[in-house]
Structures are given as structure tokens and as C-alpha cells.
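Page 37, continued from 36.
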């Protein structure tokens, strides 16, 4: 294994924009939920005339679908990701809309047969309901409660239970907005990080896990973790995910 300083410098300089995790290849592993979201998304996109993907990142997941609807729109609020999504998806005829977190989607009512998202920052159920056509469907994979808690606590110490991502609360919020929830599936997936560069990179990308993270602030913690990794003990954490499928009721006949 390369020197601590080399690994940290490499991870600090690496690009963390978008929602691709290819930089971690050979340095970290994560189990995938059993439903296979990318495959599921592709199946749904191939069957509808219009779709909206919310919080698309750099468009990586949508771009995996071999067939896109005739009208495909994605939203993203992070400016660097917006440019990445336009470069990636623009050639496929996808319209990329830049949004402002917490504000309504700049999109018309009753506009999409399908709304999707992989790991939305904070699902806005009122807006999802508004832009779906009557009878339209929402299919999304959300980050579950206390995901990667072990990694957060390695830096921050013991955390209080609950972080607002409980699937039962999300189901209730979706129903309050007027959606009918058809199915919810949950999964807990093992993560292994094998070098300190992987830890630095993932904390730079998923900034909510350790909000005040910098290498300088947490150097002593990083050195302790590095010692365990060099002794052949990967850092183990667990991600949680839930798949939600909901529909907007059709208009009365």
C-alpha cells in the first residue's frame, strides 16, 4: 500500500462531481440492493412517453438506460453536476433543468407519466404529485436511515438515533401529498473501504456524513484508520436503501 500522504493527496485532488463512483474501483466495495435499480429504471423508461428524473447528479444513472422516452427531462441543483448532465445527456435529446433546492420545480403541472430519482436529496412530494399526470407513477431508490453511520461515528463520535430518512415517514408524507404508495422495499448493504484514500474521497463526495470534514481537522482520526487498513482490516459500514413505488390517482371518470 502506498504512503498515507500519497493516498490522501490523490483523494483530495480527485474529482467528486456527479453521482459516479468509479474512482473507488479496487479500493472499496458495496453490496447492491436486490431489486437492481438501474435495470428497473431502464425498464420503466422504455415504456412511457415522458419522464422526469429528479436530482440526477451528472446524469450517470439515466444514461445507463438503453432506451429513453421521447420526452425526457432531468433536474439538478448543483451547478457543476448540471454541466456534466448536459454534456452527458444532451446528445441523447434530454432536457436538463437547473433547480434551486427547496423551491418548486420550474415545470408545468400534469406533465410527466413517470417521475424517478436515485437518492434524492430531499423528496418534495408536493412537487412530485404536481408534475405527474393523473395515473402517473413515481419510482425511486432513496437513501435509508442512518446510512454509513459507522463511518460518520468514526469521526464524530456516537450520534443520536434517527436522521429523518425513515421509510415509514416518507410513505406518510407521500400519502399526505396525494400519492398512493404501492410498494416499499428496504435493504441494508455492506460497505468495505480498503485504503485511506477511499475514505477521504467518499467523505468529500458525501459531505453530509461528516459535514465539517477536512483532512487537516481529522488528521489524527485518518491516521488511526490508516493503521487498521494497513493491518489488513477493511473499514466496514452499511448503507441502507429503500425502493418506493407510488402513483398519482387518476381523475374520476
Amino acid at each position: 500500500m502506498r504512503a498515507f500522504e500519497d493516498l490522501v493527496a490523490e483523494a483530495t485532488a480527485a474529482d467528486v462531481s456527479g453521482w459516479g463512483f468509479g474512482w473507488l474501483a479496487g479500493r472499496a466495495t458495496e453490496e447492491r440492493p436486490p431489486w437492481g435499480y438501474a435495470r428497473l429504471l431502464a425498464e420503466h423508461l422504455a415504456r412511457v412517453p415522458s419522464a422526469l428524473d429528479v436530482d440526477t447528479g451528472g446524469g450517470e444513472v439515466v444514461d445507463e438506460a438503453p432506451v429513453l422516452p421521447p420526452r425526457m427531462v432531468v433536474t439538478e441543483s448543483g451547478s457543476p453536476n448540471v454541466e456534466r448532465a448536459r454534456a452527458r445527456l444532451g446528445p441523447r435529446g434530454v432536457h436538463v433543468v437547473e433547480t434551486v433546492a427547496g423551491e418548486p420545480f420550474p415545470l408545468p403541472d400534469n406533465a410527466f407519466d413517470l417521475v424517478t430519482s436515485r437518492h434524492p436529496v430531499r423528496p418534495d412530494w408536493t412537487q412530485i404529485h404536481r408534475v405527474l399526470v393523473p395515473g402517473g407513477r413515481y419510482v425511486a431508490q432513496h437513501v435509508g436511515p442512518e446510512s454509513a453511520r459507522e463511518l460518520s461515528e468514526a469521526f464524530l463520535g456516537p450520534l443520536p438515533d434517527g436522521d429523518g430518512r425513515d421509510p415509514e415517514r416518507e410513505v406518510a408524507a407521500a400519502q399526505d401529498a396525494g400519492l398512493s404508495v404501492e410498494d416499499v422495499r428496504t435493504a441494508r448493504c455492506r460497505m468495505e473501504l480498503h485504503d485511506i484514500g477511499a475514505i477521504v474521497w467518499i467523505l468529500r463526495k458525501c459531505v453530509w456524513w461528516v459535514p465539517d470534514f477536512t483532512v487537516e481537522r481529522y488528521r489524527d482520526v485518518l491516521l488511526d484508520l490508516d493503521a487498521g487498513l494497513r493491518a489488513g482490516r477493511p473499514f466496514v459500514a452499511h448503507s441502507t436503501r429503500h425502493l418506493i413505488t407510488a402513483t398519482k390517482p387518476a381523475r374520476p371518470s
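The beta strands are 28-30, 50-53, 71-76, 95-98, 112-118, 132-143, 180-193, 235-247. Flag for discussion at group meeting. The chain has one domain: 4-247.
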